[in-house]
Amino acid sequence: MTDAAFDLGSDDIPALSTGEQAYERIRHDIVFGVLQPGQRLPLDRLKSVYGVGISTLREILNRLAPQGLVVAEGQRGFQVSPCSVTDLKELADLRLLIESNALAQSFQAGDVEWEGRIVAAHHKLARMEQRLLAGDESGTQAWKRYDFEFHQALVSACGSKALLDLHAGIYDRYLRYQMVFFVFWGPTSTEDHKALLDCALRRDAAEAQRLLHGHIHGCIDMALERGLVD
């Protein structure tokens, strides 16, 4: 998940071209459920929403197709990738495989700077989760941003940019399911994150991997039990 996808106006990132801004906005709107699964994406309508021409929109949507966020339908145009239980389970397994591997490497190589990043990321996430537990749902997008930043911090010392990029891409696709179908699952999520923090600080990769498995599949089980995804 790029920072630009969350905050196009940040002073910490370079100014983006109109086309890149449109790309980030469309990607953000798909991931966060503004553009719904299976929704058709007529170019003549999108150009007025995102302020770019049809050729630029076609290029953007073709960029998003290999990421699993858009389906190109040949002469019929484009649609937001539909959601399914099979796809969700595959994404969860991919995320678990990639993140577990990166966790082990990161826990072994992490230094005091890495520990500081984890503690700082967890502090923001825990504060937001307390707001959600109190019934304030106004910060749902910020909560998922902090959730990503925490998991990203955990694996950030793995030493492989390719692995981190792969993790971020899979996380975005998994996040789309969370934003469209999942709801905050309360104290269990908060407890899992605190336990993962403790594992990181004592470098217990095996326990962290076990917790991560339960954390990810617990979300899926909850979604299926509540009939949130078919």
TrEMBL record:
Record-annotated HTH gntR-type domain positions: 16-83
Listed InterPro entries: GntR_C, TF_FadR/GntR_C, Tscrpt_reg_HTH_GntR, WH-like_DNA-bd_sf, WH_DNA-bd_sf
A Pfam family that the UniProt record links to this protein: GntR
Classification via SUPFAM superfamilies: GntR ligand-binding domain-like (SSF48008), Winged helix' DNA-binding domain (SSF46785)
One function term, GO molecular function aspect: DNA binding
Keywords attached to this entry: DNA-binding, Transcription, Transcription regulation
Domain of life of the native organism: Bacteria
Protein's UniProt name: DNA-binding transcriptional regulator, GntR family
Biological source species: Bosea robiniae
Lineage: Bacteria, Pseudomonadati, Pseudomonadota, Alphaproteobacteria, Hyphomicrobiales
